[in-house]
Amino acid sequence: MIRYRGKKKVLDKVKELDAFPKVPEEYVDSTSVSVTFSVITFFIVAWLMYSEITYYLDSNLVFKFMPDIDMDEKLHINIDITVAMPCSNLGADILDSTSQSVFGFGELQEEDTWFELTQEQQDAFDAVKYLNSYLREEYHSIWQLLWKKGHGSVRATIPPRKSRPNRRPDACRLHGVLTLNKVAGNFHITAGKSLHLPRGHIHLNMLFDDTPQNFSHRIHRLSFGNPANGIIYPLEGDEKIINDENMLFQYFVEVVPTDVEITLDSIKTYQYSVKELERPVSHSKGSHGVPGIFFKYDMAALKIKVYQERENPLKFILRLYSVVGGIYVLGSFINTIVSTLRTAFDKPSPVVRNENFEKKKYKNPLLVPTDLEVPVDLIKQ
Fold first, then answer.
1. pTM of this prediction?
2. Which of 168, 192, 267, 291 could disulfide-link to 260, CB 3.0 to 4.6 Å?
3. Residues 103, 105: Cα–Cα separation, whole Å
4. Measuring CA to CA, how many Å separate 261 from each of 113, 126, 132, 306?
5. Cα 67 from Cα 304, distance rounded (Å)
6. Which helix or strand (DSSP H or E) is residue 10 part of?
7. Sign of the Cα pseudo-torsion (132, 135, 137, 143, in order)
8. Residue 379 φ/ψ region, left for φ over 0, alpha for ψ in the -120 to 50 degree band, beta for the rest
9. 261-281, pLDDT tens digit by residue?
10. CB within 8 Å of 286: residues ≥ 6 apart
11. 3 state SS of 138
């Protein structure tokens, strides 16, 4: 006898460690009912797994208040405003509690334009105005959609003017980015250019005392810090058109630092709330002040931290396995019941034998075997 001394394959050794009994294939009976339940169970398991994974990835947003201790950092204010006065008659600058030079914050770009918009430009601006107004009013109902789906304020982007009017520009577009200190301040647009002084600045508006001052304006953009999804900037898309001269517009802005920490991204930005006040300036009627547009901003002492809160991954995996196992067991149980009932109703009826037929069926001479007698002597020969 030749004995095989070769080594077993690794796969064979692994098969020997199988602790789960297997049913031989000859004892497995595949039916249409079982196949149907298998397909249905597979789709149910796939749908539940997709739902669980989607729910896990769609994490909850947590808003946490904490003291703001980063008082030395700078922040940017993004400005894009159109005022119904020529640029040569306007001055825009910032004055804050540090008495820093107005030229230390940066400089806005001035662009002569026309305040009256074309029909195409007016339609675009109105669409943005109404949409941002809806977002401000319904924010408490759709804030989760805004934060999770990456929506926010819509920029009032006006298409370029295709035709120029046959008149001189009567408006000024002020746009750019200024760098602010993290303290209370005042950004304003008034008549006359500014002149810096050791303890502040003045505007050379005494030359325009007899000149009509129309401070009708459109705010295309006014935000602090980097833009972030989910944050609504209340003043973007705002428009003030007046018929009275020498109007004073005041916006009291409360700026709130906001740290957004989402998946694979971290943003430091700012959101704000605003209160508005407008009144005509008439010294003869006791309404004193300087006509213009004033944005008085202040920094909140608390900041908001926005982050995602997800379930423990181990709990998620255990819940996923329990869902799959429960559907599999329930499907097998229902399949067993249905198969048992089907077998009981499809049991074949017993066969009744006809004795007369059994007796008569061999009477046909062609089918009944005949006994052939062969002589023994002939066989011996």
1. 0.67
2. 267
3. 6
4. 40, 33, 25, 6
5. 9
6. helix 10-16
7. negative
8. alpha
9. 876 677 888 989 899 998 888
10. none
11. coil
